[in-house]
Specification:
mainly alpha, two-stranded antiparallel sheet, 5 helices, 42% helix
């Protein structure tokens, strides 16, 4: 039986790790490489604390199953007509799920679900590490979108 997986591509965050001490050549320590925090680490933390992907799946289960079904159906029809077989017949559905997850985060759907700690304090204060001064006063932002890397690295796949 096929299983749907929700996860992230593990990528390092640019400014992280015990040896990073700010921008600029003079401030960086040069000795050895370090293991900074990755999108996998962030996804584990967010899933353990807030169950972001689980809430996304619970909220959009019907749309997710329709996206996968439509993708498999169109891949089957295309294969039958053309006589060639796609490498991943569910790829179209997986892309739709990725877009749904991004919209789930962007539209702040978790804010109204009654999840403890959501919206996050950082989101309410507008903290964003996309800027030179992440803690400067600015408008609130959606929870779980600080640098955008977590959102951009989200993937789904079927085994």
């Amino acid at each position: 039986m096929p299983v749907l997986h929700l996860g992230v591509i593990s990528q390092p965050y640019r400014h992280s790790g015990p040896r990073y001490s700010g921008r600029g050549r003079a401030k960086r320590k040069r000795s050895g490489t370090t293991r900074g925090i990755t999108t996998y680490d962030v996804a584990r933390i967010l899933e353990d604390k807030y169950h972001v992907m689980q809430h996304f799946f619970d909220r959009h289960e019907k749309e997710i199953s329709e996206a996968i079904t439509d993708s498999l159906e169109s891949a089957g029809i295309t294969s039958f007509i053309s006589g060639s077989f796609e490498i991943d017949p569910a790829s179209e559905g997986m892309e739709k799920i990725r877009v749904m997850f991004n919209e789930f985060l962007d539209s702040k759907e978790m804010d109204g679900m009654g999840v403890a700690g959501v919206p996050t304090i950082a989101a309410l204060h507008g903290v964003s590490h996309r800027f030179k001064h992440p803690y400067a006063r600015r408008a609130a932002r959606p929870s779980f979108i600080d640098t955008g890397l977590y959102e951009a690295s989200f993937r789904s796949w079927v085994d």
